[in-house]
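quick q for whoever's on today - can somebody do inverse folding on this one?? i tried earlier but teh output was garbage lol. tokens:
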């Protein structure tokens, strides 16, 4: 086996270990919030539940809010790539509808993680400020991806950011509707919200 192959394998193992640790911390945070409530959970408890040190926790997440709802860099890259290279015949708004709904769908790639995250978002209104910060990161990444897809320079057109902002606002409104006891299933409400946006943009 060549030195290059050994180096590639070592890098692969390190990246896999990082993903496993990040996932363990995220799941630990979500489990503890479900058990104790968000306000009662500390970063030290999250680290201990995941089997790592408090110092290691902060190598992965800047706060307990980020550990609970923070979207990882890998996820952001995947969402941006999906928007930049869409399904054939899919409009930008339809792509955003698919991507954003998928972020909350318990049937996505990591079912346990996303299902827990969804329950927390619907059950902990106190996470709203952190969710706004997370949404800004997502908005910036998706706006840049949509600009590349449309072939426009960054900031040269309002359309990409407006489209992304409207899509994220629709999902946030549906989540807040559920948190406040609103009627209907989340998926159905998101579908209806995007239908109304599409009609308005037309």
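ok took a stab at it. sequence:
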């Amino acid at each position: 086996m060549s030195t290059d192959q050994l180096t590639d394998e070592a890098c692969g193992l390190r990246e896999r270990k990082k993903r496993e640790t990040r996932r363990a911390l995220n799941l630990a945070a979500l489990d503890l919030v479900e058990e104790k409530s968000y306000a009662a959970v500390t970063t030290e408890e999250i680290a201990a539940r995941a089997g790592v040190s408090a110092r290691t926790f902060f190598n992965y997440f800047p706060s307990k809010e980020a550990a609970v709802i923070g979207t990882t860099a890998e996820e952001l890259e995947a969402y941006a790539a999906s928007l930049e290279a869409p399904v054939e015949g899919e409009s930008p708004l339809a792509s955003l509808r698919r991507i954003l709904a998928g972020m909350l769908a318990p049937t996505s790639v990591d079912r346990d993680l996303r299902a827990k995250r969804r329950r927390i978002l619907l059950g902990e209104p106190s996470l709203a400020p952190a969710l706004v910060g997370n949404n800004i990161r997502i908005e910036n990444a998706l706006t840049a991806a949509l600009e590349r897809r449309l072939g426009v320079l960054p900031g040269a057109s309002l359309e990409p950011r407006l489209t992304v902002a409207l899509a994220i606002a629709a999902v946030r409104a549906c989540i807040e509707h559920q948190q406040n006891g609103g009627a209907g299933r989340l998926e159905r409400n998101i579908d209806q919200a995007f239908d109304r946006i599409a009609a308005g943009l037309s």
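fwiw The chain has a mean pLDDT of 84. also Residues 1-67 form a domain with the Arc Repressor Mutant, subunit A fold (CATH 1.10.10.60). so keep that in mind when u check it
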